[in-house]
What does this fold into?
Amino acid sequence: MKQNIKYIISTCAALALTFGLSAQSLNSSYFMEKMTKRNQLNPALKTPNGYVSFPMLGNFYLGVNSNLGLGTFLYPRDNELVTFLHESVPADEFLGKLTPNNTVELDLGMDIISFGFWAWGGQNTFNLALKSQTGVYMPKEIFQFLKTGQKASGITRYDMSNITVSTDNYVELALGHARDINDKLGIGAKVKVLVGAAHAEARIDRMDITMSQDEWLIKQSGHIQASSLLQFKTDPETGEITGYEMGNNFGIGGFGLGFDLGATYELIDNLTLSAALTDIGFMNWGELSRGETDPNREFRYTGFDNIGAEDDENGENPFDNKVDELQNDLEALTKFYKSESQSVSKSLRTTMRIGAEYSILNDKISFGLLSTTRFGGYRTYAEGMAAVNFRPLSALHITLNGSVSNMGSSVGAILNICAPGFNVFFGTDYFATKYSTQFIPINHARANFSFGVNFTFGKRHEI
It folds into this structure.
């Protein structure tokens, strides 16, 4: 059974990594007043000049966000590394590093073209970008089952529901406008048109395992679905999905609509409060290929018999036959069968940000606090960030930050060179301090990096 669980996980992971990752901007840039991309965090945040960027230059983001790390699964023993399944690794030591919901989210994003200009009483923005969102979500029970299995006595139960891998890939066209209502209040809004490229999801909705000395009882239900870019291979007689391959159909997979809303307010001199809701909306994926497990199938195993039996006259061993039967029954539980295609609507990953910034020394230094809460998706994400922003020169801005979240804690920094005519930035929100020789984060896999080059133009506006 453990081998079957591993098969499910590996299949789901392969499905996710077939596609791209999730796009976003650095939270560290929220308080950088000349950062051209901070309007993606709050549409009310303006920059003093107009700007324009081009493919591969404007904004590139790469990162991973997880509450797991290499040190969760590998342990040093006698000058060697062993996995968490090794008998020398106590169950409590391994399971103590896990949370009820364990997550790995991979991020990659790139602007195709973007620009902003001042007109009509405020700053207007245009952004065409490739975006993708991929995540793997696994409950703690699945690792507990792999490590401890059945208890020595009594009944052992595992609830391994909601094992999920999902990826959404689309092109986003965003049009925004930000303006000041008076000398204290500023507002901004964006409308986003989404064109879907590829979607896939593999999900075990329910897997209940009851284990006792007398029998095992396993019940499971789940589904797999994908847009036309991922094609399922099926058995023509049974309808069983036997594999998948990348197709050559790069047509439109779906459409969506989203909105961003934001505001800033100068409460007193040098103290500015701000708030935003981004990605309010939905994505509709049409005519997804779909497969489901057999809802009427359950597995009940009452134990081996005929242990030590002799081969019969045909040379077959009853015990070996029982082992083969067990293997076939377990494999049948993880099979998906072709079902009717259907459309699926999903909410976007709505995110709320609340910020406060206090500046000193004629705005040469400021201190910021930023709360970020993501409601959409398969898991709620919450983070608090404290930042110190240095503006020693008009053309040089630096931000240092520290953050704490339900995915772990980290530090980060970003450098923005904002001389007249161009804007260059690079930095990170999450800098992992301990890596393996393969440059994989040891403790929590939270690390990202972003850079961009933008060209600025027009007269300078007060913001």
Summary: The longest strand covers residues 185-211. Confidence is low (pLDDT under 50) at residues 1-23, 304-310. Residues 31 and 368 are 7 Å apart (CA to CA). The radius of gyration is 26 Å.
